[in-house]
């Protein structure tokens, strides 16, 4: 009994100049995935705008080429993606796009589309970011209005982009996780059980299970040895009684919704149409 794929891993493309944030190359992650018996692997380095984000479009093109070669070398199916960052301001401002930094051209090339929130990026004014983070994380007693805005931001991300799964939902931001998970599920989007971050509470996970939400269990590995390590996700599965039928990469391959993912799995190149999930 095993997980068949790991769809959230980082490589040396997550870096700041010479300072590496994650330790392994794409090939090393792929070799580790092969040793762990995985059939599929996604490389999802931090997106544009993150302090350790991939260094622009040329770097993403290189990442994609590394994925192609590593797939040939190891026999593990590899998808090239990014960890795209949600701009929570989009929950109240229609003129702000849900993703920070990910331009449409890059979006059209992602073979798997992950969306999630990370603190301290994107907004032009650090002070806004500090205030947001303070309200959401330090005090942790957000107003109902703030929760509504953050929830709306996640929903816009689901509506406006071909998101395949939401990474560490509610980490560093407080939204209505259950409402978002149900909304995501109705649109074919998986909720991640992240291997490194405790972002979802047991009662939220139980409510999601009751609503039939489907999950994807990922390592969020930042070093090759951690690829395929689902220990934390499995502890949540056991603690919250998540049935394995609701875990999309347990003993089966998940059915991600984006057109690019489907074509990449079929071995064709495809182009994501930003609107096509409505
Ligand atoms: Zn990271
Ligand atoms: Zn990550």
Detail the topology: elements first, then pairings:
Layout: E1 5-6, E2 15-16, E3 19-20, H1 26-35, E4 40-46, H2 56-74, E5 77-86, E6 99-100, H3 104-107, E7 112-116, H4 126-138, H5 144-160, E8 165-166, H6 177-186, E9 190-194, H7 202-210, E10 215-218, H8 231-239, H9 259-265
Parallel strand pairs: 1-4, 4-5, 5-7, 7-8, 8-9, 9-10
Antiparallel strand pairs: 2-3, 5-6
One zinc ion binds next to loops.
Q: How would you describe what is shown here?
A:
This protein has 278 residues and is an alpha/beta fold. The chain is 35% helix and 15% strand. It has a single domain, classed as TIM Barrel, CATH 3.20.20.140. Strands 1, 4, 5, 6, 7, 8, 9 and 10 form an 8-stranded mixed beta sheet that branches. Strands 2-3 form a two-stranded antiparallel ribbon. Helix 1 (26-35) packs parallel to helix 2 and helix 5 runs parallel beside helix 6 (177-186). The radius of gyration is 17 Å and the shape is globular. The site of one zinc ion has 5 residues, from loops.
